[in-house]
Structures are given as structure tokens and as C-alpha cells.
Amino acid sequence: ANTTKDLGQTSITCLENMSKEECDIQCAHYSDYLTNGSLVEYVLGIFKNSASLGNFGTQVTLYEHGLQTATRIHRDGGDEELIVCGLLHDIGELMSPSNHGEVSAALLRPFISANNYWLLANHDVFQGYYYLHHIGGDRNTRDRYKDHPAYQHTVDFCQKYDQSSFDPHYDSLPLEFF
Quick one: average pLDDT of 72-90? Predict the structure, then answer.
């Protein structure tokens, strides 16, 4: 991590030889990375880059899709955490389309609640409700989670914000707003 603090440097070449002091140094570096804004800037950089990667067959880029989702949540009175989740919910698609929800959730895990972590990790399954039947799948796959405490939260997120955010004419708020 890029840091202005002098947190020290270990001399290890393999973990089995690490001392307690060296472990403390390494943990301090990771802690600083999580708290000094570097991770946030890294994740936002990935999101900003999605503006130039094409639209993957829809009428908007993943960047615009994230802005629309976050804007809809904001306009509906959602809290800051859910707005951030909406903004970045598909960031994992850029790295692993087949399990992008899990990737997005893992990136945001240090900053979000258990319910929103679960929402992100599973939203791609819940989105399937809107299209899986067109490709021979079961649109009700999400129903296997009906007993989970975040089930309805995830249904609502997908129905109200995610699945409707592919509109090239929607008046999204700019990233700087968020």
C-alpha cells in the first residue's frame, strides 16, 4: 500500500519464519490500507474504468447502470450504505461475471452490514427472476433463500433499483454527488 506513515518493513521471505513483531508490522500496513482511503480509491478506480468498457449488450455501461441504481436508491430515501451498494453492486462483473455478486460483496465487506453483504453476494441469483426463464433456467431460483432474513431486502433491491436501471434516458446523479 502507498502510505506516508513509516510503519516499518519486515525481512521475511516466507511466513513460517515470521516473528510476532513482523506480523504486527504487516497487520499495521493492512490496517492502514483499509483506513487511509487507499482501498476506497482503488475500488472507485475500478468502477470509473467501467465507463469505458462498453455496454455488454445493454443500452448503458456498467458505470451508468451503477449510477442509475444508486440514484434510484437515493431518490427513494435509501441510506448511505445501500446507496454505495447500489453504486458498486456490479463491480465484480468486470472480474468474474459468473459470480460477480460474490466478488462485489467481498470487495465491500469491510464497510457494509451483514444484510447488505448478503444482498450483494446473492443479487445476481435474484436478478435471474427477470431473465432466466428466457434461457431455459428457473426464474424462481431465488426462492431457495426464502427463509433468509435478507431475502425480501434483496428482492426489493433487484425489483426497485437494479433491474430497472438500464435506461439510457434516465437522469442519473453524477458520481461526484455520491
Answer: 98
Q: Nearest 10 degrees: CA dihedral of 129, 135, 136, 140?
A: 0
The rounded distance, in Å, linking the Cα atoms of 83 and 178 is 8
Closest CA to 39 of 110, 117, 116, 90: 110
Model pTM above 0.85: yes
For the record, the C-alpha cell of 76 comes out as 427513494
Residue pair 32/1 in contact (Cβ under 8 Å)? The answer is yes
Amino acid at 123: H
Contact status, residue 64 vs residue 161, Cβ threshold 8 Å:
no
Strand, coil or helix: what is 57?
coil
Got the DSSP string for 36-104? SSHHHHHHHHHHHHGGGS--TTSSS-HHHHHHHHHHHHHHTT--HHHHHHHHHTTGGGGT-GGGHHHHH
